[in-house]
Structures are given as C-alpha cells and as structure tokens.
Amino acid sequence: MTTYDIYVVAQDGLLNLQGTPAKVTQTTSDDTFPPVWATDYPKPGGVTETTERVLVKTDEAGTAYFVCLPGGATAPSVLQVRQGRDAADQVLVANLKGNVALTADTETNWTATGLTAGTTYTDTTDSLTITQTATVTFTAGPASASQSTVTASPTSVVADGSTTSTITVTLKDANGNPVSGKTVALAHTSGPGTPTISAASGPSDASGVVTFTVKSTAAGAAAFTATDTTDSVTITQTATVTFTAGPVSASQSTVTASPTSVVADGVSQSTITVTLKDANGNPVSGKMVALAHTSGPGTPTISAASGPSDASGVVTFTVKSATTGADVFTATDTTD
User: Fold this and answer.
1) Closest C-alpha among 116, 79, 72 to residue 96
2) What is the pLDDT of residues 258-298, one digit of tens each?
C-alpha cells in the first residue's frame, strides 16, 4: 500500500483563485484477490478423437494456465499447473500444457492436442472431467490361413453312413481375433470313399466359428480342408476323421476254398479263406474266427487259424482228409 496527498484548488469564471489548496490524503489498496471464474466456467468447449477444448472467463484480466492429464490422475498443485507440471512434478509435453491471456468478462479458450482416442482426460485448470468421450471400434482383419483352425470331434466314428463327426472351423486374423460374417466351404481332400458333408451352419459367427458334420460308409482316415470363400483363403490346418468298420455282417463276409478239390490222401491241403466285412463291405480286423466241418463224409483235419482277422479282415485255415466226398466248412466270428 502507498499513501498519497492530493492537493486541489478551484478557480471561478472570473479567474478568482482560492488562496489555499485543499489537501486530500488517500492510501492505495493492493489487489490481493485472484480472478473469479464467471458462472459455469471453466467448462468443456468441444472434443474430438484427439483434441479437447476448455472455455474460460473471469471477472478481470490476467492469465489462465492449463495442464491436461489422464482421467483419475493425482491433481497437481497451483504452482505445478502454472509451471506445466503434473503432481509428480514432471514437466508435461507442449501439447498437454499452455496458457492464454484473459480479458475481463470475455470468454477465451485453450485446446489440448495429440490425445489418445477413447481415453478420459482431466483439465486441471478446474479439475473438470469432460463428459463426452471418443470411441474407436477396432475390427478384425482378413482371415489368416495359419492362425485359423479346423478341428474334428469326435475324431473317430463308425463308417455306417449315419454316425457323424462335427468339423469346427474357427476363422482368426493374424492377431488371433475372430473373423465373423465369412462364408466357409469344407472339402474332402484325402482318404477312402466319398464322405457326406453337411451344409455349413451359416456364415462365421461372432466367435469366427462355422460348423459342418461328416459321415461315411468307407472305413479309413479321411482329411477335410476348409476355405474362406469370401476372401479365397484356404486354412492351413486340416481335420482328420477316422471312419472305422462296423460289426461283422454275416451276409457281407465270405468263406472261400482254394483249391476247391484236393486228393483225399490225408496230406494234400486246401486253404479256407474267411474275409470278415461289415454291412458296407469294409474289412473288419482284430476278430477271432473258428472254422467247423458242418457236412460231408469223414472227419477232415482243420488247422489252427492264422490269427485274428488282419487289416483286410482275413483269417486262413488249411483242411485235409483221407475220406473222399464233398465237405462243407462254416466260419464263425467268435469275438462277436
């Protein structure tokens, strides 16, 4: 504060001047009060994906200082805001701090730039969290041949033309994100027979999944390959289903003799070949077979079986006799 003496004299229109000056003593007052925000200020002034504007207005001229921090960050002190620092006293980069000149009762603004989309920031001029946020939707890229998968469940079913295995195709992009809305085709690329492939369950769903069912009457390992026909991407991984033979069929299985005629000398032999097959003609392996003499003269000698039926469903025996005549031999799958 400073005290001043102000001296004043007056003169009339006839130039009559007062004889003694009057004195007025006054002491100036210091401005010790900070600016006051106008009602509703500071306030949001607009936001984009990477910028945020703040509007300010005060009752007197001066300067407004700003720092922009991620939402939820510790509030800095007044001095730190003026110096462009955060609560940890770290100096902020230029686009996240600034100041503007204030004119009394006049709105002005400051804009933070280079922000991250979808992130909430706090303007620490007034610790006000901006209501509006920016949203970015990140979508999956094209299906990746190496990241996508093709699996079968179960991996082994009976080759009876009705029992099915489910093939699941999961489309993923290069980063493993599921790819939806794609049309997928499934093809039989190796293995016996011509398996029946159902229609697809539909376009790939939100999880990138399309399913098929497969069935076959031909025994053996069948491989299946999937292709995203929307983008012409053939999936590297394949699914293999092993179709196994069903139970032995009495009518499909065979019993043959070679030769069909031998000398009845008790030494010469004929070989009886039993071939086990299921209802669809697939060979049935691993079964025990017995051979019996069921009609004809004498008592032919029957050797032991060659073993369980092999991969071709075959078991062999030899027979010999010292009695002439036609002998009939019957085979039985004793396992079943």
Assistant:
1) 116
2) 999 999 999 999 999 999 999 999 999 999 999 999 999 98
Residue 73's pLDDT band (boundaries 50, 70, 90)?
confident
Question: How many whole angstroms separate alpha carbon 138 and alpha carbon 132?
Answer: 20
Between the alpha carbon of residue 72 and those of residues 76, 109, 119, 120, 206, the distances in Å are 12, 23, 11, 8, 33
Residue 317 corresponds to which tokens in the numbers above?
Answer: 């025996």
* 3-class secondary structure, 248: coil
Query: Reduced to 3 states, what is the DSSP secondary structure of residue 222?
Result: strand
- Using CA atoms, how far apart are residues 201 and 183, in angstroms rounded to an integer? 10
Q: Which residue in 100, 29, 33, 31 sits closest to 62, CA to CA?
A: 100
Q: What is the DSSP-derived secondary structure letter of residue 114?
A: S
How far, rounded to the nearest angstrom, does the alpha carbon of residue 117 sit from its chain's CA centroid? 23
Owner of token pair 């289903």: 241
Distance, in Å, from the CA atom of 158 to the CA atom of 219, rounded to the nearest integer, reads 8
**Are residues 199 and 110 in contact, defined by beta-carbon separation less than 8 angstroms?**
no
Identify the three-state secondary structure at position 151: strand
d(CA 119, CA 20): 74
Domains recognised in the chain with CATH numbers: 1-137 (no CATH), 149-244 (2.60.40.10), 254-333 (2.60.40.10)
Tokens 């080759």 label which residue? 159
Biggest CA-to-CA distance, the chain: 178
pLDDT recorded at residue 132: 65
Q: Where are the alpha helices (DSSP H) in the chain?
A: 78-83
Pairing of the two strands 239-244 and 156-158: parallel
Q: Write down the residue that tokens 């019996």 correspond to.
A: 292
CA separation for the pair 50, 37 (Å, rounded) = 27
